[in-house]
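Quick sanity check, tRNA modification GTPase MnmE:
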Amino acid sequence: MKEDTIAAISTPMGEGGIGIIRISGEESFNIAKKLFYPKSKISFEEMKPRTMYLGNIYDDLEKYVVDEVLMVKFKAPNSYTAEDMVEIHSHGGFTAVRKILNLVLRNGARLAQPGEFTKRAFINGRIDLSQAEAVIDIIRAKTDKALKVAVDQLKGKISEKIKEIMDSLLSVIALVEANIDFPEEEIPEASPDIILKNISYNIERLNYLKEKAGAGKILREGISTVIVGKPNVGKSSLLNSLLMEKRAIVTEIPGTTRDVIEEYINVKGIPIKIIDTAGIRDTKDPVEKIGVERAMEKVEGAELVLFVVDASGELEEEDYKIMENIKEKRLLIIFNKIDLGQKIDEKKVKEHLPGKRVVKISALRDEGIELLREEIYELIVNEVGSLEEGIIITAQRHIEAINKAIESLKEAKITVENNLPMEISAIYIREAWEYLGEITGDSVKEDILDAIFENFCIGK
Ligand SMILES: Nc1nc2c(ncn2[C@@H]2O[C@H](COP(=O)(O)OP(=O)(O)OP(=O)(O)O)[C@@H](O)[C@H]2O)c(=O)[nH]1
Ligand SMILES: [Mg+2]
């Protein structure tokens, strides 16, 4: 089936040095030819692929030069989508790029859907599905480490591992089927022993990938971390210190922060989504009350809580109430305002929050912040394991597919152990193969595809 020709602006909206319009499909060259007039007066056909040419984009109806641009053509299959493609690099900004896109559309292209260029790269077999997904992870990576994991995925490292396992499963399926179809022939026997060995080995390999997935999810999505405490203890000051920026309003008036403030920080490669909240107390002020409710909601959903107390004062009723609410969470206790001397009873705090670590800081003077970052890192790495070596699965979709494949293989194992006919085992093994194929795109359904590419931006 022939695909139509699509076009979109691939750079972000707004002022910039350049803006890029991308065209992909059969008509790309024809459309570009009508609009682009090279300075060097050579014909469109004479232009070499993958080479930039300077020229003008000319509005053929209104008869005027829209912009001076650079144009490059890519001949199929050597392009991002594996189709004929053209990129027009115009001056950035709101008008020129849009105007050129409109010209391209008027001359026969249709506006691309989000992720459609990457989807075509997948459909045309240039990349597999996990590689296509990596593209969006690269765009969204919040730290260097997250970027590295996504680039590994783009290079196909995850698909490689998964395909190895799929091939190994396929070899057993083939063996079983050969034994069923040609029982008389001289082929290796599909003994229960061989099948069991294969299944167990592949379950082990999948479990290994799964174990590392916790770290992957964190690298991809970050850890949502809520700063809580009663009013005026220095929560917003702590947020500002961690961000190294005066992001939140700080005053000596209790109840300053009303709304929830969210920002990302990078703690040794781990993206931390840090959330400042309203100080928690009983209040009659209707606005502050909503703030307190929102703070409590954020604590519910948090993966890490930074509980801030004013170490220069005594524990108060509100502190006890908050501690009661958060004691089950992954948590660090922050003694703030340590520059004023420590008056708080450390033993009492630890009694109420057993097993949790205390970090002493002065948000005002930026003291102890580096130590706090270390503590955050240690806490996370201790629980999810190293983020360093090996292949890391990051996408929830992949984790689910691996889980389902493991379940199917376990079923297969049971059937072999109970001496059921080999055909039955083969059905389960094939099921596992198909689940894994959802990761690479070998056996993926249309609705899953749509859901994946919907996440992309237009022009990618
Ligand atoms: N001495 C000292 N003062 C601090 C420190 N951290 C914050 N403060 C002061 O404490 C006051 C309250 O700070 P905020 O950061 O606004 O406190 P908060 O917890 O966000 O307060 P609410 O938003 O009202 O809940 C301000 O006057 C800060 O300057 C610290 O480490 N030492
Ligand atoms: Mg505040």
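Posting the structure with no commentary besides this: The pocket of guanosine-5'-triphosphate (ligand 1) is lined by residues 229, 231-237, 250-252, 254-257, 278-279, 336-337, 339-340, 362-364 (CB under 6 Å).
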